[in-house]
Amino acid sequence: MKKHTSKLIALVLALCLCLSLSVSAFAAEIDSSGGSGSTPVNLSSTSDGTEGGDPSATAMRVTVPTALPMAMSQDGDVTTANNCQIVNHSYGAVRVKSVSITAASGWKLTAFGNKSILAGEKVDSNKLGFAISIGGGQQKATDASNANTQTLIDAPIAGCYMTGVGDSSRNSVAIDYDAIVTPLSGAVEGANVANVVFVIEWDDVTE
User: Fold this and answer.
1) How far apart (Å, rounded) are the C-alpha atoms in residues 152 and 139?
2) What is the largest CA-CA distance in the chain?
């Protein structure tokens, strides 16, 4: 008898667990031939996908590069990485809202262009001209307006849009960048000269 009681308790507990994880359904009665019933379709967004779970929006999971490395030759030619990208791991589509750059301590932003425009600058002036393109879109570059911080992209433009993770062909965008730097009297290695901030938002219906 005790053995059967234990099995019954286990069955009841299993049934309770199943019911707690299920989505409740309700019945509408039709009592005549040709009658109809209107049934609403109700949606709840929860952290675990169960009715009664903690209310939660779709999770955003996007990765940006941990660094944008570059190397300058003895002749002033700058080489940058060719594999930097932004990847959307979220279920929903996202876009790059803005991109800004801030000079690191001891450095100044200047206009980007051919390296020859820095030929007249004093050695160790620590000036950086920077340009960036996202997803093959228009290149945006620093100018001489502000030596500390500049906004390169102030609103989503072509190339800034990524689909959700389900579309692996369009859920990432490449980052192409270039720079010019004033001459250095001494060697540097991995020196932080600036920081780029990428702001990411949902690609929602507001735009």
Assistant:
1) 9
2) 98
